[in-house]
Amino acid sequence: MNSTRIEFIRSVYHLDQCPKDGLPEIAFVGRSNVGKSSLLNCLLSRKGLAKTSSRPGKTQALNFFQFEKKSYFVDLPGYGFAKVPLQMKKDWNKVMYTYLQERPALAMVIQLIDSRHKPTEKDLDMLSILDDAQVPTLLVATKIDKLKRGERNKSLSIIQKTFGLDDDAVIIPFSSETGEGRKELWEYINDIVG
Question: pLDDT tens digits for 27-80?
């Protein structure tokens, strides 16, 4: 993929700052430190495009990246644990949840789950919010390279059961380190944005 086809547009702290051109938006959500920014960098073959950190709470706004001038990828703040003031966390949550529930241009949400851990109550809450908003959602199990072969299927099964998903539900195993799942994720994205 030619990495020049993506560019950072802006960080949004209030919804009236969102792009107004109506291009379809694909949002990336997940717990703090689940690997959203790393996944975006891997997906777009651009190291350092989305800022990463081992410290939860690095992403503090809705970060808009324009892809091929035909869609946006939106990196959202992580939900759950983050070493930031409580008021700041409340402000993030309000902007993020309003965006997810009311943004007309939102075409799909990719919800990231850390494959090494059972989904949390906050993960379940997020999927419920997306369900209520009737936003097409794709689950991606991150950090899959950290699991041994025998643990992978067990982890995916736990995610599926915790979310109460059908046997044929899609969960993409993904590794930002090895690129596993990148091709499959692009197939779903291309279905949405063409």
Answer: 999 998 899 989 998 998 887 665 554 444 445 689 999 998 999 999 998 886
Q: Write down the pTM of the prediction.
A: 0.88
Query: What pLDDT, on a 0 to 100 scale, did the predictor assign at position 51?
Result: 55
For residue 156, give Cα distances in angstroms to 75, 85, 119, 146, 148.
24, 34, 10, 13, 13
Q: CA–CA separation, 83 vs 62, rounded Å?
A: 18
> 3-class SS at 38?
helix
DSSP string for residues in 13-49: SSGGGS--S---EEEEEEBTTSSHHHHHHHHTT-TTS
Please give the CATH number for the structural domain made up of 3-193. Answer: 3.40.50.300
